[in-house]
């Protein structure tokens, strides 16, 4: 069974996007982004919620296309409308059976790329194994939280910390059972 890894940028006040989904203050180039792109090559598939998928529309992504063409990508939603011919698979809601099937069949780690609501539901269900945070030296003051509506859950163990000259901090945490 493959682990689900939540690999996400985070402001120091706990948001993965600012008000109205603003991500302009996060780094879009440089060493922290280079390291993220390198990690991205090691994932076998990507999972996300509807809002995260549709966020790509702001950057010119067309409905039905795959934001990660080298990965099998699953969008978990009850309401998303995509063309019949599409490069992503729609999974109804947060179907735990389908998610377990994906974990069992994936050839490598699973990239949870968002968002806060979907991550909160997966955390509450005990489905997130590893959290990789790219902590940005910014305050957003509001927006999309790292985990929406999630109980604290089990303890985490920090297994890696890396400091960047531009003030970013990468940390990897493993869920303790």
Describe the structure.
By secondary structure, the protein is of the alpha/beta class. The chain is 20% helix and 29% strand. It contains 4 helices and 10 strands. It has helices at residues 31-40, 50-55, 96-105, 116-124, and strands spanning 4-11, 15-17, 45-49, 72-76, 89-91, 110-112, 130-136, 144-145, 156-163, 169-175. It has an 8-stranded mixed β-sheet. The longest helix is centred in the N-terminal third of the chain and has 10 residues, at 31-40. The chain is globular and about 45 Å long.
Protein traits:
two-stranded antiparallel ribbon; 177 residues; globular; 20% helix; 8-stranded mixed β-sheet; alpha/beta
Any chance you could write out the topology, listing elements then pairs?
Elements: E1 4-11, E2 15-17, H1 31-40, E3 45-49, H2 50-55, E4 72-76, E5 89-91, H3 96-105, E6 110-112, H4 116-124, E7 130-136, E8 144-145, E9 156-163, E10 169-175
Parallel strand pairs: 1-6, 1-7, 3-4, 3-6, 4-5
Antiparallel strand pairs: 2-8, 7-10, 9-10
């Amino acid at each position: 069974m493959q682990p689900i890894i939540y690999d996400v940028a985070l402001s120091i006040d706990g948001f993965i996007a600012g008000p109205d989904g603003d991500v302009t203050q996060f780094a879009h180039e440089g060493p922290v982004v280079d390291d993220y792109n390198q990690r991205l090559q090691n994932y076998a598939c990507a999972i996300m919620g509807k809002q995260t998928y549709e966020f790509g529309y702001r950057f010119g992504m067309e409905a039905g296309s795959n934001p990660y063409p080298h990965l099998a990508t699953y969008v978990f939603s009850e309401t998303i409308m995509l063309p019949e011919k599409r490069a992503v698979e729609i999974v109804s809601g947060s179907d735990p059976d389908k998610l377990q099937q994906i974990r069992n069949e994936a050839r490598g780690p699973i990239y949870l790329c968002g968002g806060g609501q979907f991550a909160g539901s997966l955390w509450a269900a005990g489905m997130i194994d590893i959290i990789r945070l790219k902590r940005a030296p910014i305050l957003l003051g509001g927006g999309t939280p790292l985990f929406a509506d999630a109980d604290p859950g089990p303890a985490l163990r920090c297994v890696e910390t890396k400091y960047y000259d531009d003030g970013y901090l990468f940390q990897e945490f493993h869920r303790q059972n």
